[in-house]
Structure to design on (205 residues):
């Protein structure tokens, strides 16, 4: 199994990049997607969250009010640890299972594992072969996140300051894709790096 971790700051273009890897036939496992599935309506973990944090974190629809929970744990390390202790082991186990299922069923040349907070809390060292960072200028990162998530500039900046710095991320990357241009430029750069990964994983097998 050859696994490329795809990471980057909020709004850098990880999801857009992951979509393009999937379009060209590379299996993608995304920890955020797993977290959403594990806490969807009807999932046992949603009941656990309500039991631990309270009914007020449910929206009227019965779905998890993610924005409210995110805000609740943002400035409260103890609450954040409680949430992480509850959901991280399940996310980790699901991610490993999906990677193994892809490996067994699809025999892909490599797989993409989207780990938004790879450098903040790394539980994936043992499965990752390469680290790909999606990077863009901070002004663009802020603009794109504000547009996507209906957040204010101050909210985006607060999230960014809780993440590792751009310089740290770039220093720890094996490969970097700059996402300052158009979406089609991003797609072209992914096709190029795809060819490189194919060569790398053939050599290492
Ligand atoms: P992340 O997953 O890293 O938080 P996204 O992939 O969701 O970031 O990108 C943030 C927002 O910016 C999304 O609305 C996405 O469609 C948009 N976006 C990503 N890359 C580009 C680009 N090169 N040009 C314009 N918009 C982009």
């Amino acid at each position: 199994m050859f696994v490329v971790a795809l990471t980057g700051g909020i709004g850098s273009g990880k999801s857009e990049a992951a979509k393009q890897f999937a379009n060209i036939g590379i299996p993608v496992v995304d920890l955020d997607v797993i977290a959403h599935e594990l806490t969807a309506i009807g999932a046992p973990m949603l009941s656990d969250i309500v039991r631990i944090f309270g009914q007020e974190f449910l929206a009227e629809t019965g779905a998890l009010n993610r924005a409210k929970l995110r805000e609740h744990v943002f400035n409260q390390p103890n609450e954040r640890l409680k949430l992480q202790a509850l959901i991280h082991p399940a996310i980790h186990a699901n991610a490993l299972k999906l990677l193994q299922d892809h490996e067994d069923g699809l025999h892909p040349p490599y797989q993409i594992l989207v780990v938004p907070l790879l450098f903040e809390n790394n539980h994936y060292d043992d499965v990752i072969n390469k680290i790909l960072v999606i990077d863009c200028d901070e002004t663009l990162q802020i603009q794109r996140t504000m547009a996507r998530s209906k957040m204010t500039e101050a909210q985006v900046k607060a999230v960014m300051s809780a993440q590792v710095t751009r310089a740290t991320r770039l220093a720890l990357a094996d490969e970097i894709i700059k996402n300052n241009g158009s979406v089609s430029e991003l797609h072209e750069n992914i096709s190029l790096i795809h060819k490189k990964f194919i060569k790398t994983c053939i050599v290492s097998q």
Observations:
- The longest helix spans residues 77-106.
- The first strand starts at residue 3 and ends at 7.
- The two ends are 9 Å apart (CA to CA).
- Strands lie at 3-7, 28-30, 111-114, 130-135, 175-178.
